[in-house]
Amino acid sequence: MDDQTTPTPPPYTRLSELLTNLPTEQRTRFLTHYRHAIHTGRINAVILTERFTLPTSSTRHPTRHTTRHDEAILLTPDTHDWLHTTRTRTEQETRRARSTGAGRIAITLDELHSGQHDLTALTQANRQLKTPESSPRKKPKRKRQPTPGGRKPRGNTEP
């Protein structure tokens, strides 16, 4: 008797499944963290040929639909940890953005002491935000006085 076992495929999940389980207002932030995790190699995923469309919302676009290719994400213990911390983080960021007003990044002192956030990165992000308090004031344009008698001729015009 041959005892051949077929190898079991590694466990994976779809990006569309992860996003459908999130509230609409958290999806955009989650995708931002997801792209960063892919770029840094924290998550292993492969792009699939299927596409999906989900409603998303942000402060600039309250009702918007996002269409993108689905991705198969390899589930490892590190991926599970990342998913858990990122879901918590996006929930906190969304709640904080709603309570403090969009356009500012605000954290509690306890979050800063616990090491959840990088102070220099948050400072840089706050500098880059365009808020009404920090937007530069435009100088009013000076109105030119019309020249009496129309335009003056240029150059040497002797009679």
Quickly give the structural class.
alpha+beta
Q: Please provide the ordered H/E string of secondary-structure elements.
A: EHHEEHHH
Average residue pLDDT: 76
Estimated radius of gyration: 27 Å
Total strand segments? 3
Indicate how many domains the architecture comprises.
1
Strand content: 15-25%
Helix content, binned percent = 25-40%
Q: Unreliable runs, pLDDT <50, ≥5 residues?
A: none
Strands ordered across the widest β-sheet:
1-3-2
Shape: elongated
Alpha carbon gap, first and last residue? 119 Å
The helix tally amounts to 5
Largest sheet: 3 strands, antiparallel
Overview of this structure, please?
This protein has helices at residues 15-20, 27-40, 77-100, 109-114, 119-128; strands at 12-14, 45-56, 64-74. The chain is an alpha+beta fold and 159 residues long. Strands 1-3-2 form a three-stranded antiparallel β-sheet. The protein is elongated. It starts with 11 loop residues before the first strand and ends in a 31-residue tail after the last helix. The mean pLDDT is 76.
Outline of the structure:
The protein is of the alpha+beta class and 159 residues long. It has five helices and three strands; from the N terminus they run βααββααα.
